[in-house]
Amino acid sequence: MTKTLIVSYTPRVGSNTKQLVDYFIDTTKDKTEITVLDLTKNAPDLLLEEKLNLYVKRNFGGVVLTEEEQQVMFKNDKMVNQVLEADFIVLASPIFNMSVPATVKAWVDVVIQAGITFTQTEMGPKGLCENKQALVLMTSGSDFNIEPLKSVNFATPLVNACFGLMGIPATNITAFGLQQYPDKIEEMLASSKKEIDFLSKKWF
Ligand SMILES: Cc1cc2nc3c(=O)[nH]c(=O)nc-3n(C[C@H](O)[C@H](O)[C@H](O)COP(=O)(O)O)c2cc1C
Fold this sequence. Notes:
By secondary structure, this protein is α/β, with parallel strands linked by helices. The chain has helices at residues 16-28, 49-60, 67-85, 102-111, 155-165, 185-203; strands at residues 3-8, 33-38, 88-94, 118-121, 124-127, 133-140, 170-176. Flavin mononucleotide is lined by residues 10, 12, 15-18, 94-98, 139-142, 178-179.
């Protein structure tokens, strides 16, 4: 059976993004083995001075870390391993301030690891993750499908590029404008759920 990693950041009580990711889980849990990383309860450690320098020493410098140093990196390394073990990755998040919430970016910074999920070549970075696919489920208050916001949607291009850096093609299912079009919330979520059905039939 395939393995699917759900990475979810949906902290708001009554979250619409959670509705979508829960729908994905409910409709696919018999077809794939699901692991959930709830970033609202288990956030990655930020790359502050100690962790960033251990990362650079190990991943760029090729230095083997001591047991103690490995312990410091353990939590974040577990998150990278979850990506390596998955066939499919679903990232669910709202847009915050034109981009992804800081907690989601922190996860991205942790799972993109030189020598593990990507490598540097003369031609530029090359993804090391093969045969994986990602789904990005994203919602927003305003409509990022049209200008003037379309040009300042840094969220979906960012996550797509970051998955791409690891060699993982990403599909986006978005419900943009949930506060801008309050009368259409149910219609938009239903449409996203149809897209989820379509994709999950392709995947599983
Ligand atoms: C801190 C914060 C920042 C937000 N920034 C934006 C934004 O830049 N653009 C936007 O359209 N909506 C923004 N929103 C609204 C959310 O993206 C929108 O309500 C989303 O659907 C919330 O998802 P949820 O229902 O899963 O909580 C923001 C909400 C919060 C709480």
